[in-house]
Fold each of these.
Amino acid sequence: MSEHPMIRLVDLHKSYAGTPVLRGVDLEVARGEVVCLIGASGSGKSTLLRCVDHLEVPDAGFVEVDGELIGHHPAGPGRRLRALPERRIRRQRAGIGMVFQSFNLFTNLTALENVVEAPTSVRGLSRAEAAREARELLAQVGLAGREDSYPRQLSGGQQQRVAIARALAMRPKVMLFDEPTSALDPELVAEVLNTIQTLAGRGMTMLVVTHELAFARDVADRVAFVDQGRILELGPPQSVLTDPRHTRTRAFLGRLARPQTPAGSRDDR
Amino acid sequence: MSARDIPLEPAAAVPETMPDTVPEQARPRPRTRAGLAGSAPGTGLAPGVPRPDTPIPAGRAHPWRWAAGALALAIVGAGGYSLAHNRAMQWDVVAEYLLATPVLEGLWLTVWLTLLVTTLGFLAGIGVAAMRLSANPVLRMIGVAYVWFFRSVPVLVQLLFWFNIGYLYPTLSLGIPGGPTLISGSANDLISATTAAGLGLTLHEAAHAGEIIRGGILAVDPGQVEAGTALGLSRSRIFRRVVLPQAMRGIVPATGNLLIGTLKGTSMVSVIAVNDLLYSVQFIYNRTYAIVPLLTVATAWYLIVTSLLSAAQYHVERHFARGARREPSPSPWRRLRTLGHGARTAWRSR
């Protein structure tokens, strides 16, 4: 049944004001597979992820999710891809869950309202039905009883778990995580990573940008090292993380092992 | 006074181990056996209640704060007394005209003109803000030019301009271009003084309202829009459900200020003989020469309406503060009680 990969990136290119950020990225993620993207700040990891959700439109190349071309009409005879109408793109995005580094919960809505919002307006569920599902999802991420809290009344870890529940409420085919723990205090990282690991255990296809190498080692099926807008090295975690072939991968892992050096600073755009 | 009423333990009862920096108000008691043991077990005290010998820090006394407050009160009191007892104030005249029909008619015009100008100004302001935030460079430019022009020209000049529009366009007509004319008439008939006043104030208001709305929208974190986009929400849904409610937190206070400014700004229409609150009292004192009492009448009404608007603003702001703070802000009543409590504490720890 899975004759096509769940996520397929083909020769993605993207520049910002003449500065190339992605310089030809090819990647295939199988159904149920977890791929972690690691790499230095500014290497293009986040841009790559945002292209999958069409938050960024690639200058060249294309993205397919579950065999469907994202953001464009299926390729015809010519080279140019025609953009899909906004409504179709919205429907595609609804099937792709995205979790941001800075959570981006709607600050004027409670935890429950955050989770309920998209299912009612995009999936067309009734409010009662959406609220029932939302309570279930919040309980799954360990936040039963916090439904009526506003984001600012929750810790960073709790906010990120609400954000995960909010993305799951759309029943996405794939989940994208953009440095989900980089904005968290160290003691809150584990609760979010555990939530993501549980999802992986349930067979969710995931693409995770992270600096948590231990997480990548334990959860990822494959790890991709992104360097200067390309995937330099891709393989099982034990080979990429413990026995990298490229000197640049080795240098990056060496810097992460000594996080006190400025080069190993963990903030990324 | 009250601090001295509280019976203090004799100084001799203070154990030598107590540091001498412990304030007098802390009233340390001799340590009991359980107190020395350190924690609640065995003391019979609930956790969360300090042990009987635990020092309690008192607030710092602020004698100069009290002195400055008293001096300020004395000055304000003296000023108030002098005003109240000045015969030229003619408080009886003030009382006579406060509810006089011409004054109330003027007040009515002032109020409805303010509401009309604010409503129309904001509707137009939404358009101005939308143009300025548009992706279309032409619309953006027009928006910028509009704001530049109508913020630069004083309202008074604009009012005079609209009042005298008949010199520029003697006749105004509305019709289908190349087709029949639907309405036509002399500019001076169509644009009365009141219309000129509403027009001038509204155009001015729209420029300011547009900037307030734009500022409020720009203050919303772009991540909020991005999260909505990633969920597949439509742009209008994101705007209505997420961006606008958050933008309102910035828009409401600024709008309150603008509304109060507009209320006072309407007094300018008196120069083109629109019968507003100020014009109505001027009309009376030109006849009776009771200038100061009648200006006091106008002042009183401006104060009353502004106070009502401020109270309304306060409640609207509280509504839109939803989710903005960790704790909801206290209602005015609770704040008053806290203030009283604070004053009592300060008085005690003097």
Amino acid sequence: MSIVVNPRRLDDVVILDLSGRITMGEGTLVLRDRIQKLLAAGDQKFLLNLADVDYIDSSGLGELVTSFTTIRNHGGQLKLLNLTRRVQDLLQITKLLTVFEVFNSEAEALKTMK
Amino acid sequence: MASKGRRSFELTISSRLEEMQAVHALIAEAVKEYKLNTEMAHWMELSISESMINAIQHGNKADPAKQATLRISSSGDAIEIIVEDEGTGFTLDKIADPTDKANLLKPSGRGILIIRSFMDEVDLSSTEGGGCRLRMVKKLRGVDGAHRQ
């Protein structure tokens, strides 16, 4: 199952509810395309809800990093919400937990994005 | 073309990412045959798919005329995975450390780290035909150990 991206908006923050797998190929392209369109429309604050994502490969991790740097280069921010244990383990192994701000509560994440 | 023995699996594919569907299907068969638990199955699938994507993209430069082969077998107390491609190979110890601060924001280079973090043994050698062979071993914790269902 490839990735499904469902965006919703709370004030000026776009929350992307992701489900499925973020993997080499379609999974990464779908995410990239969605974020690029939102950036082009002027959105700058992104919260990726990964509660329903329990499989990310190295390309998927690369896409998260690329999204992070692209958004940051536009003066925006990207934060992660609700990591599954496997994704948390993967970010730990790759030390990407030192790159991303990660939250278990949407409300807490939103507070930091005002 | 895939063939399945009692406790071993083999698949040879052309170097196209579309072929990864067959790779995932073969891994699922092996996981079922070896009765691996869901946690073990997850990391097994991730490690093997990373190695096959490496073989397709880096080893064979995504040339569909070149082939990549996957073999999965079990001795009962360990699972051995062999991935072969037609590339010139690489040196494990010369791969840039993706966890180094200078590399953290690079979009690629994490596949081997993921493989090494899960597998108990990872080594590289040359095939008889001059290609590259990646051998990985995951030890199982006994017949009724924690890695099985």
